[in-house]
Write a structure and sequence with these properties.
The chain is an alpha+beta fold and about 190 residues long. The protein folds into two domains: about 100 residues, no CATH class; about 70 residues, no CATH class. It is built from five helices and four strands. It has a four-stranded antiparallel beta sheet with strand order 1-2-3-4, with helices on one face.
Length: about 190
């Protein structure tokens, strides 16, 4: 019994999509998987994102100008004014300010004493830009990684169809009737 015409068409295109789609998505999907694994581990691996330093506890007493001066004193940070700072993560309950510089360095400053507690290169932002494609070009998200995600979704659907197909086919086959005239083997 041959499968119906729509089913044959779906079988043929599922195999083609699965074959060529997996080749087309190979490199971008590998980048997304590896960078995603690294981002999942960013709090556990200090090389990816610096761990939060222990700061003296107390209410914030240091002015923002003093924090800027403390960060500017670090040569690796390459900070001369506020325009060189990408983000400032102020954590009053931890007595800490995390300053993320445009140079990629993160400087952690005590908001109680004003001393620099830690300076380290922060790779999590770079890895995140690899993960979403913005590292390569500002339009790579929409023109490369979004179509890739759609193709991977179609690969999942075609793979599901290719897996279900033999099971559906075996359910439609009539089972041969059990014969009672068989003689037992000696």
């Amino acid at each position: 019994m041959r499968p119906s015409k729509p089913r044959r068409w779906l079988n043929k295109w599922s195999r083609k999509l699965h074959r060529w789609g997996s080749i087309a998505t190979l490199l971008p999907l590998l980048i997304v998987i590896v960078s995603g694994i690294l981002l999942l581990l960013k709090k556990q691996i200090g090389w990816i994102q610096p761990p939060t330093a222990d700061a003296p506890f107390g209410p914030p007493t240091v002015a923002f100008e003093h924090i800027l001066a403390a960060v500017a004193a670090i040569p690796e940070a390459a900070v001369s004014d506020w325009s060189d700072i990408d983000r400032l993560d102020f954590r009053p309950d931890e007595g800490l300010a995390k300053i993320q510089c445009d140079s990629g360095y993160e400087v952690q400053v005590s908001t109680v004493t004003g001393e620099v507690l830690q300076t380290a290169y922060r790779r999590s932002d770079l890895i995140e830009s690899l993960h979403d494609g913005s590292f390569f070009h500002k339009h790579a998200k929409l023109w490369v990684f979004l179509p890739n995600a759609i193709i991977v979704g179609l690969l999942w659907l075609s793979g599901l169809w290719l897996w279900l197909m033999p099971h559906l086919r075996s359910k439609k086959r009539p089972t041969p009737p059990a014969s009672s005239d068989r003689t037992p083997c000696a």
